[in-house]
Amino acid sequence: MYGVAAQEIISEAISKEKPYWEHQGEIKNAQQYIIESLTERFDVVGKSLSEKIKSIQSLDILNMLFKKTHRVNSVEEFDQLVNKVLN
After folding, report:
1. What is the distance of C-alpha 6 from the center of its chain?
2. How far apart are CA 39 and CA 41, in angstroms?
């Protein structure tokens, strides 16, 4: 239906979008894993902390924070770490 040139343009556009969406998916997963890990350990994660976690768009920072979910002694301590990251 499309010409070869049109198919190449469409194919190129799709290949450029894919890494962005894959990266966004990784970020969303990391955010969710952090919230789930905190909920599993401390039962309740407040809406404010959840929103802060969801505002972080760096996969490296999210991965570091995920590791910290196993080391902190309270949700409040984790909240302080998140505040340091955001400031």
Report:
1. 35
2. 5
Compute the distance between CA of residue 37 and CA of residue 70 in angstroms, rounded to an integer: 8
Q: What is the 3-state secondary structure (H, E, C) of the chain?
A: CCCHHHHHHHHHHHHHHHHHHHHHHHHHHHHHHHHHHHHHHHCCCCHHHHHHHHHCCCHHHHHHHHHHCCCCCCHHHHHHHHHHHHC
* Alpha-carbon separation of residue 18 from 25, 31, 61, 79 (angstroms): 10, 20, 22, 33
CB atoms within 10 A of CB 75: 18
**Residues 68, 78: contact at Cβ < 8 Å?**
yes
Mean pLDDT by 10 residues, the chain (87 residues): 69 68 90 97 94 95 96 97 94
pLDDT given for residue 13 in this prediction = 66
